[in-house]
Design goal:
With 279 residues, the chain is an alpha/beta fold. It is 44% helix and 18% strand. It is built from 12 helices and 7 strands.
């Protein structure tokens, strides 16, 4: 029996694996055979799901699903590494798919391939990109795609209260799905007032804390708070700072931002701080 708190990527895709692999590959003849282990020795991530699929045209192959809360500049390299590890382990062709849940900062451009050239040698890995905010919410109900029901509020056209309630009704109508209500509430809070969300659906923090996306959002909230505090200190000391400096701070983790805060307090000019930022 699946635990009520099991609301990660593997659980969601396993709700309707055939519908999922057909959607991500855009090939209606593909069927899912089994969910495979995606732990590769020293690497294990809760947001990766590896599905063994089959089609009469292509035979057995792997669908590597990476559900990422927000796209980062590290994703192309990660997709290259995971695709290679999966293919090496299972000796099957691999179809990598990156599903971005929330839009990244406007300064980041989402790419669908990894490319590197070094000493005349090239490494290339293409992968499909699906941005959930670009997906029409109506598709979830029409196909149907139960794996995407918790994400309806952040899909295109899904932020209306009537559409969220429609998703809620679909979850409550199916015993297998109603445990996902808290995850639907979580993403609804991105587009609707939290008191309204709590009024119309269950908000179980014990369940939400088991979601890998909850922890990532919590961590990113801490990171963003540290970045904003650093910017305030710089502006207080040196006046308005350039957009370029703000952009360069976006990729820093909490520890790096804390070290830069020490520098921001100690330096005598913004130029001196920028030099430290460049090292």
């Amino acid at each position: 029996m699946v635990k009520a708190a099991d609301i990660g990527s593997k659980r969601l895709i396993n709700l309707a694996p055939d519908a999922w692999v057909q959607w991500v590959t855009q090939r209606p003849e593909v069927v899912a055979k089994e969910i495979l282990g995606s732990e590769f020795h020293w690497i294990s991530r809760e947001t990766d799901v590896l599905v063994k699929a089959y089609s009469a045209t292509h035979g057995d192959f792997l669908v590597l699903n990476e559900l990422q809360l927000r796209y980062t500049t590290q994703m192309p390299l990660r997709m290259r590494a995971y695709a290679a590890l999966a293919q090496e382990r299972y000796r099957l062709p691999t179809y990598p798919v990156l599903i971005n849940i929330l839009p990244p900062p406007s300064t980041l451009t989402i790419v669908n391939s990894y490319e590197q050239e070094f000493l005349g040698l090239r490494a290339i890995q293409d992968y499909r990109v699906i941005n959930l905010w670009e997906i029409d919410a109506e598709i979830v109900f029409q196909q149907p795609l139960p794996s995407l029901l918790p994400f309806v509020p952040i899909l295109r056209g899904g932020g209306e209260i009537s559409v969220v309630q429609r998703a809620l009704q679909a979850l409550r109508a199916d015993e297998q799905l109603n445990e996902l209500e808290s995850l639907l509430a979580f993403f609804a809070s991105f587009v609707l007032d939290t008191p309204l969300v709590q009024q119309i659906m269950r908000w179980d923090m014990a369940v939400l804390r088991e979601s890998p996306w909850y922890h990532e959002i919590e961590q990113r909230g801490i990171q963003e708070g540290a970045r904003r505090q650093l910017i305030r200190v710089l502006e207080h000391r040196f006046g308005e700072i350039s957009h370029e400096v703000e952009v360069r701070l976006e990729g820093k983790n909490v520890e790096q931002l804390e070290n830069l805060m020490d520098s921001a307090i100690a330096v005598n000019s913004l130029d001196e701080f920028v030099q430290i930022l460049s090292t």
